[in-house]
Amino acid sequence: MLRRTVLALPSLFLSPTPADRVLSSADASEFVKKETSQLPGEVELLIIGSGAAGLSCAVRAAELGVKSILLVEKEPLIGGSSKMCGGHFSVADTEYQRLNHVKDSPELFYRDLVQAGGGKNDPSLVQKFVEAGRAQFDFLYKNNIKPMSLWASGGSDIPRGHVFNPQEIVFFLLDKARKANVRIAPSARAVRIELNPASQVMEVTLEHLGQRLKLKTAVTVLASGGFANNRTMLHEYLNDLENIQVFSGNGNTGDGHKIGLELDGQLIDTEFIKPSYGFIKNAADPNDFTMIFYGGAVILNQDGQRFVNESISYKDIGLIALQQTNGRSFIVFDENIRLRQLESRPPEAKLWENLNKHSSHVFFSDTVAEAARRAGLHPINTEKTIRDYNEMVEKGEGLPFGRKSLSGGFGKPVKIERPPFYVMPASSGIMGTYCGLKVNDKTQLLRSDGQIIPNVLAAGEIMGGVHGENFTPGCGFGKALAFGRVAGETAYSLIQP
To answer: Rounded to an integer, what distance in angstroms lies between the CA atom of residue 71 and that of residue 318?
Structure first.
């Protein structure tokens, strides 16, 4: 049944995978215990980074027949940013969409990605993302890894954001890699790649257990994520970091970018780095994040006035919100919207279930004015803003700032009328850098002159060229899964006789 921003089949909902199965379990420890005692001196394929991109690459390469694979992760735990994300995977024309009576196509998805990116995307990478994302989705689906719901978010008028439990995907890929005899080494940091022009074998310097060692490999895949946790590097591309928090994997410090640049690679799309909007005040992790404005909530400044079209990309909202007085903004909604959000976005249950007077991230009351007062908003202005908004929605009039839909053209705006009423102080944060090293559609790293750097690939967040000037929700996790798969296939084609 279509329910505005969500289509869900309760029978396909998945029980959450316990967090500790991926984050710190004895399972994960046993997976890698034997592998880390002594690293090999030579492998066919070396993968740097253990998020969705690195694990997808390892699984696909092993499936195709690569025999000797080593995956290294500089952090002590496996999973990178992927285990922290919201699990939103945008992909088109899936079995799950068809079960929910959603009509979609690869052509429409391609159109939406290019349009959202302002035409600044690399068309070949967008096309490959659409194709490989669908292939990786089908792989997960056939292995009974299925989404919990569908979601239409800024940048699309079609529900194609498949909401997964990201830790379930990471654990599944880790298990598949282990069973394929992929060697996995946490606490092993790649430092440098040295190419030998006269040989197909490169030498990689690793730091592991306090020692430096050299490893020979035919192909190396950089899947080490972004650089959101490198404040110095981030400051080169963002002028105002004062009101921005960072929510990204601890290992995302740009190590892979440094390696790629030393090989004469090029960093692209840095001008498109933007913060994401929807974090609670004093957020502790990426799960303290909501997209409830795509479910009908409105966004106000501290004077109780709307200032933005809530249906646009949360990246664009993030920049506009930071420009408000004191960088302050608030998300306002009612009980109807809260209940719909719980149904459509299961990962947000942490924020919207079991609310009480001690809930510090949201203020609520049976009147809009009182909820606003408790949150520090101007109560009279806020009440008038919501009253005027409701009147325009009821009459079908054009809403200020151009809001015509719930999200990206999907769904009609709804009235905020059922108590209790909620006000959430919101902030912007960096979840990823969404720019990166220039690659071709086979994930091969390119020199500044456009030539291929032999046998060095890059997949996932470390890649540039996919998003263009704006990020489409669901394409960060999706890019890692899709291009990890592509890198595995390219690695196989380079290794096989």
So the answer is: 35
Residue 388 structure tokens: 């005027």
State the Cα–Cα distance between residues 353 and 330, nearest whole angstrom: 19
Element (H, E) at 385: helix 379-395
For residue range 448-486, list pLDDT tens digits in order.
899 999 999 999 999 999 999 988 888 999 999 999 999
Instruction: Give the separation between CA 220 and CA 450, rounded to whole angstroms.
Output: 19
* Structure tokens belonging to residue 305: 């006035």
Residue identified by tokens 């919201």 is: 86
Give the span between the Cα atoms of 85 and 167, in whole angstroms.
Answer: 9
Which regions of 141-294 does DSSP assign to beta strands (E)? 149-151, 161-163, 183-186, 188-194, 202-208, 211-222, 244-246, 267-268, 276-280
Is the pTM of the predicted complex or chain greater than 0.70?
Answer: yes
CA angle 29, 32, 38 (to 5 degrees): 130
Residue 449, class by beta-carbon neighbours within 10 Å (0-12 exposed, 13-18 middle, 19+ buried)?
Answer: exposed
Distance of CA 13 to the CA centre of its chain: 21
pLDDT at residue 88 tops 80: yes
CA distance 87 to 70: 26
DSSP codes of every residue in 460-490: GGGB-SSSTTSPPTTHHHHHHHHHHHHHHHH
